[in-house]
């Protein structure tokens, strides 16, 4: 019997939308080099590795290039898999021990709600290299421990971005969040670029909403927000800001179940 691996589309309720993630279910610890090789083989923005513990699961996330400290969509995918295959009952909370501390997830009908740390940004002066790479003049520029946040002037400007990936790759950050207020049924929209860690554009980025939530809560004067990430695949994210925590809501669907062969 090989090691189970499942591919899940996260932050969507239909196949071939949202953000695909691999979820690898481990029975024993595996070397970091092995997990990195599996992530390269899966070639998704992130592959999650779950190892059972007495009080939950040890969870790590790898892009095809590096291990990352926080990932929303692969956590959503992991929780979805644990309930779907019966490792957890639907009324049980999924508990994950990660590089970003303890994260939890619970079900709410067909939705999954995750409890994540808020990662607010500090405002910066305009960065010419960043604006040149994005091809826009920023309304606001900020940075947290992971990413830059750039507010564009309009929803249309975010959707029509044509970025210079090489210039973004040279910037000192995991990724770049570009956002604007929405003129439609959403509170805000965003896109996320992370070529420095091997992901040119991430389809739907849960961890980015740990930054976007506090930012737009402050601007809009409301803590309960509905967001859309405007990638080619697209995805909906519910965001509830509670002090230094952010509750992220999303749906997920399984694409396929398989196993890794053992040499």
Which short descriptors sum up this protein?
globular; single chain; alpha+beta; 263 residues; 20% helix; 18-stranded mixed β-sheet; Diaminopimelate Epimerase, Chain A, domain 1
Task: Please outline the helices and strands.
Blueprint lengths: L2 E8 L8 E7 L6 H11 L3 E8 L2 E7 L4 E2 L4 H12 L9 E5 L2 E8 L2 E7 L4 E2 L4 H7 L5 E4 L3 E5 L3 H5 L5 H5 L5 E7 L6 E7 L4 E4 L6 H12 L3 E6 L5 E8 L2 E6 L1 E9 L3
Parallel strand pairs: 2-3, 4-6, 11-12, 13-15
Antiparallel strand pairs: 1-2, 1-18, 3-4, 4-5, 6-7, 7-8, 8-17, 9-10, 10-11, 12-13, 13-14, 15-16, 16-17
CATH superfamily of the largest domain: Diaminopimelate Epimerase, Chain A, domain 1
Q: In the CATH scheme, what's the topology name of the largest domain? A: Diaminopimelate Epimerase, Chain A, domain 1
Question: What percent of residues are in strands?
Answer: 35-45%
Helix content: 10-25%
Number of helices: 6
Domains, number: 2
User: How many strand units?
Assistant: 18
Major sheet details? 18 strands, mixed
> Overall pLDDT, averaged?
97
Order of helices and strands: EEHEEEHEEEEHEEHHEEEHEEEE
- Please identify the structural class as seen in this structure: alpha+beta
pLDDT < 50 runs, ≥5 residues: none
So, CATH architecture of the largest domain?
A: Roll
């Amino acid at each position: 019997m090989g090691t189970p691996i499942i591919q899940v589309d996260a932050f969507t309720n239909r196949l071939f939308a949202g953000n695909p993630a691999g979820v690898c279910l481990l029975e024993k610890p595996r070397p970091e080099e092995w997990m990195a090789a599996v992530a390269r083989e899966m070639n998704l923005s992130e592959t999650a590795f779950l190892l059972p513990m007495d009080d939950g699961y040890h969870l790590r996330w790898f892009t095809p290039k590096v291990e990352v400290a926080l990932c929303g969509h692969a956590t959503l995918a992991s929780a979805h898999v644990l309930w779907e295959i019966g490792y957890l009952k639907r009324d049980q909370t999924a508990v994950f021990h990660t590089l970003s501390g303890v994260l939890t997830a619970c079900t709410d009908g067909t939705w999954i709600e995750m409890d994540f740390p808020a990662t607010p940004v500090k405002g910066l002066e305009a960065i010419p290299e960043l604006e040149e790479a994005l091809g826009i003049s920023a309304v606001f520029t900020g940075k947290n421990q992971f990413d830059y946040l750039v507010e564009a002037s309009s929803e249309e400007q975010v959707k029509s971005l044509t970025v210079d990936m090489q210039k973004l790759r040279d910037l000192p950050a995991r990724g770049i969040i570009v956002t604007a207020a929405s003129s439609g049924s959403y509170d805000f929209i965003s896109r996320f670029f992370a070529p420095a860690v091997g992901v040119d554009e991430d389809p739907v980025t849960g961890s980015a909403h740990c930054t976007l939530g506090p930012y737009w809560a402050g601007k809009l004067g409301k803590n309960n927000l509905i967001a859309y990430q405007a990638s080619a695949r697209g995805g909906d994210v519910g965001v509830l800001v509670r002090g230094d925590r952010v509750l992220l809501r999303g749906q997920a669907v399984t694409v396929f179940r398989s196993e890794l062969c053992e040499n």
